[in-house]
Design goal:
2 domains, mainly alpha
C-alpha cells in the first residue's frame, strides 16, 4: 500500500479547494472530488466554520464570523475599545466573539493604546 504524499502540490491544491468549500456553509461536499486532500480540507474547513458560527444543521446565521472578524474584536479589547456592532450575531457567535474580546481586554495596556492612537492620528486615521 502506497502512502499519499500530503506535502505534494496536488494534495495541497485539493486540500485548499476543499477547505474553502468547507468554510462556505451553503456548499456540500462535492462527491466527485474524492481525493484525500479535498476531503481532509473540506472537513477541516467545515470544523473551523462550525467552531465560529455553530452547527450548520441548526441554521446559517445572518452574519458569518471569520478569523478576521474575531481578530478585530481581539484588537478592540487590546485597545480598550467598546464593542457596539453585535446586531445579527447568534448567541453562539456572541459567545465566541466574547472570548476573543475578553482575551484582548485581559491584555489591555492603556499606554500602548495611547501610543497607537497617536500614530494613527498622525497618518490621518481618527478613532472615536
Amino acid at each position: 500500500m502506497a502512502i499519499k504524499n500530503i506535502f505534494g502540490s496536488s494534495y495541497r491544491q485539493d486540500y485548499l479547494e476543499g477547505y474553502a468549500n468547507g468554510q462556505n456553509p451553503k456548499v456540500q461536499m462535492d462527491n466527485e472530488k474524492s481525493s484525500l486532500g479535498y476531503i481532509s480540507g473540506f472537513n477541516s474547513g467545515r470544523m473551523d466554520y462550525e467552531e465560529m458560527n455553530g452547527q450548520i444543521s441548526k441554521g446559517i446565521p445572518t452574519r458569518i464570523v471569520t478569523i478576521k472578524i474575531l481578530e478585530d474584536f481581539l484588537l478592540a479589547g487590546l485597545l480598550g475599545l467598546s464593542i457596539e456592532e453585535t446586531d445579527d450575531y447568534t448567541p453562539f457567535q456572541l459567545s465566541v466573539i466574547a472570548k476573543w474580546y475578553i482575551s484582548g481586554v485581559e491584555n489591555y495596556d492603556p499606554s500602548h493604546s495611547t501610543y497607537l492612537f497617536d500614530v494613527l492620528e498622525d497618518i490621518g486615521i481618527q478613532i472615536d
